Amino acid sequence: MSRSQTGIVSTPARHSCVLIYEVVDLPMNAMSVGQFSVMVPGFVSDVLKKYPGERIACVVGFGPMFWLLAWHGKKPRRLRPFETLEAEGREFPATEGDLLFYLHANQIECLRDMVGYIDENLKGLVQPIDRFWGQSPAITFAEQETAAPDGVPESVFIDTHEADFFRGSFVLVQNFRHAPDETVEVATPLKETARQLGREEHLLIHSLPYRAEDEAGTLTMLFHSDPDAVDTVLEKSLEISPGQDGVHWADRLRPVSGARFFVPSIDVLTGLRMGGIRMNRFSPTRQYS
Question: Which domain of life does the UniProt lineage start with (predicted)?
């Protein structure tokens, strides 16, 4: 049975890091960067040898155009980039992003080793877009009868109608900046809007507060299988009534980025690592342990 990438379902660690890159000269470098990126989950086992007892979760995601160029145009049916959404004078902006790494570990040194390995191998091939360090994210999703054994609604993942991409997902990564001394809840209005539209089962939300020397904010990662449904939820969330204090939730913060990535299953990552695509199918291989 296909398995989703570990960092989607479980983040048992104290520290998290999100890396977003743009590939330099994408048509020229897509295949080289793609071949390296699918090796990253396998590198986890090497890092763990230095940190006995540690646990690492890793998510690798691909921007739509990067995925198409790296893997010969074979794609999930609903794969498409995020586009800026506007309503009531507010907006969720769309920004660049070809490659995503989302990492979790209990020891910050372990994460730094992983990030150093990624940076070293991609040097000259990518430009950093965003980099966030934070604690373990808060995870929000709807409970329902069709939930998988791990508790995550099955509708977050691509279903068996697309067998090659089964248990893959999409993730929309958005950065919201706000005052350093303020805590702004992002998941609640999104979840409430999804509930009103009858689409709450389509969302798995990771909320990752972060703080740097000159800024603070919340990074949200919306895992989903239907980009149209999620974009509708986001757009409608800009139209909901203000809170009891008369202030709209989106006016408490400033959305500054938004990029969608495809997150394939572990099986697909392993097949790409070991053999790529042959006869328009992913190579069948053993899974990462």
Answer: Bacteria
Using DSSP's 3-state secondary structure scheme, residue 174 falls into: strand
Alpha carbons 268 and 283: distance in angstroms, whole number = 8
151: left (phi over 0), alpha (psi -120 to 50) or beta: left
DSSP assignment, residue 272? Answer: H
Residues near 167 by beta carbon (within 8 Å), at least 6 away in sequence: 2, 3, 4, 157, 158, 265, 267
For residue 279, the model assigns a pLDDT of 42
DSSP string covering 12-61: -SSEEEEEEEEETTHHHHHHHHHHHHTTHHHHHHHHHTTSTT--EEEEEE
Q: Would you say 132 and 115 are in contact if contact means Cβ atoms under 8 Å apart?
A: no
Q: Which two tokens stand for residue 242?
A: 């203000």
Kindly state the average pLDDT of the residues 268-274. Answer: 79
In DSSP terms, 281 is beta-bridged to 278
Each residue of 79-93: pLDDT tens digit? 999 999 998 888 999
What's the first-to-final CA gap in the chain, in angstroms? 14
pTM of the model: 0.89
pLDDT per position as a tens digit, 230-255: 999 999 888 877 766 767 777 778 89
| pLDDT confidence bin for 21, thresholds 50/70/90 | very high
C-beta separation of 204 from 224 below 8 A:
yes
CA dist 79 and 83 (Å) reads 13
Query: Taking a C-beta distance cutoff of 8 angstroms, is the pair 97, 80 a contact?
Result: no
The phi, psi pair for 170, rounded to 5°, reads -110, 155
pLDDT band at 287 (very low <50, low <70, confident <90, very high): very low
Q: Where do the domains of the chain lie?
A: 6-276
